[in-house]
Write a structure and sequence with these properties.
Distance between the termini: 15 Å
CATH class of the largest domain: Alpha Beta
CATH superfamily of the largest domain: Glycogen Phosphorylase B
Strand content: 15-25%
Order of helices and strands: EHEEHEHEHEHEEEHEEHEHEHEHEH
CATH topology of the largest domain: Rossmann fold
Number of domains: 2
Helix content: 25-40%
Largest sheet: 7 strands, parallel
Number of helices: 11
Strand order of the largest sheet: 3-2-1-4-5-6-7
CATH architecture of the largest domain: 3-Layer(aba) Sandwich
């Protein structure tokens, strides 16, 4: 049975939002606050775009008033978040309003709570606080509720596949992150298959610039979520940063992936959470290239032999989503 009362989901676009939608799959009346508005989902009734912020206290101050506007307009029974600093004004206001605030810390933090999670816990800005890793939950004396999707490739899925009769595609994606990731591209240039015209490369660069083009391929700065899903579906191999949203999408098409985690020491991110999650996800589908190690050899023959899924599989953890929805009404 689905939870029918209104849930206001507050989550940054990307991995936070991917997790939030998995976690609220037992809810059918959702309004969303995020830092982007070009988002679509059958269960989302309204979308509000809020100013993005990391450490700008003025924007936090302005966002308090915007959060009040959204809460008064939507009048949710629950505010739910998987993190991102945009949630802090909502957590603060819920402390003084008759609105329950439920927080689920992100899967990407394997060693410690996220910065947002630390603030929410430190200032007791929650009615329920959950973690998706048992060790972090025990360390911080909060509740473990499971993982919102099958990130560890523990499930077996029934799939239909088809032979790829065309040119094998290698998709490269760096996500929407604003940090540089030129190290990844430098690794690509060393691969013999980068110069193989039998393979088509599709490279999503973000704001990064290639200094060497592949023998056969397209280079794009950014694509929509739907376009990215279509590219993943068609690809024989994906080379990707190690973001949670990317991991979930690759799992949904049971895709062979080489993950290259962003690391702080190369100024590719503000912390090493991608490196931490990378340590957990190696499987028969996922290969992880750790810092200062070369990209694995990729051959045309292995790409040509790989079959592609005709339909995505559902990796959502519905048992966890049901347990979470029960806390909304408790």
């Amino acid at each position: 049975m689905e939870y029918s009362k209104k849930v206001l989901v507050v989550a940054s676009a990307g991995g936070h939002l991917t997790q939030a939608m998995c976690a609220t799959s037992a809810c059918n009346n959702i309004a969303l606050v995020s830092n982007k508005k070009n988002i679509s989902h059958s269960k989302i009734k309204h979308i509000y775009k809020i100013w993005d912020t990391q450490h700008n206290m003025f924007i936090h101050f302005v966002n308090v008033f915007y959060a009040m506007y959204v809460l008064l307009r939507e009048r949710p029974s629950v505010v739910f978040s998987t993190g991102g600093p945009i949630v802090l004004p909502f957590a603060l206001l819920c402390k003084f309003l008759p609105i329950k605030f439920v927080y689920l810390d992100t899967l990407s933090r394997v060693v410690e709570l996220s910065n947002t999670g630390k603030l929410v816990r430190k200032h007791n800005l929650f009615d329920h606080f959950f973690c998706q890793w048992t060790e972090i939950a025990a360390k911080n004396k909060v509740n473990y509720i499971g993982k919102c999707f099958d990130i560890l490739c523990e499930n077996t899925y029934e799939v239909e596949t088809k032979k790829n009769d065309g040119c094998p595609i290698i998709l490269v994606t760096v996500g929407t992150n604003q940090y540089d990731f030129n190290r990844l591209f430098e690794m690509l240039y060393t691969l013999p298959i980068y110069n193989d015209e039998r393979v088509k490369w599709v490279i999503q660069t973000g704001h990064n610039k290639l200094t060497k083009l592949p023998a056969n391929g397209d280079v794009v700065e950014m694509v929509s979520r739907d376009e990215m899903e279509s590219l993943v579906k068609q690809s024989s191999l994906v080379i990707s940063h190690c973001g949670i949203g990317s991991i979930n999408l690759m799992l949904s098409y049971q895709k062979h992936v080489v993950f290259v985690p962003r690391v702080a020491k190369y100024s590719e991110f503000s912390d090493d959470h991608q490196l931490q999650i990378a340590n957990e996800i190696s499987s028969n589908l996922f290969t992880v290239t750790m810092p200062d190690t070369p990209m694995p050899l990729i051959t045309f023959e292995e790409l040509a032999e790989r079959e592609l899924l005709t339909q995505s599989v559902d990796t959502t953890n519905y048992a966890m989503a049901k347990a979470l929805s029960n806390t909304f009404s408790s």
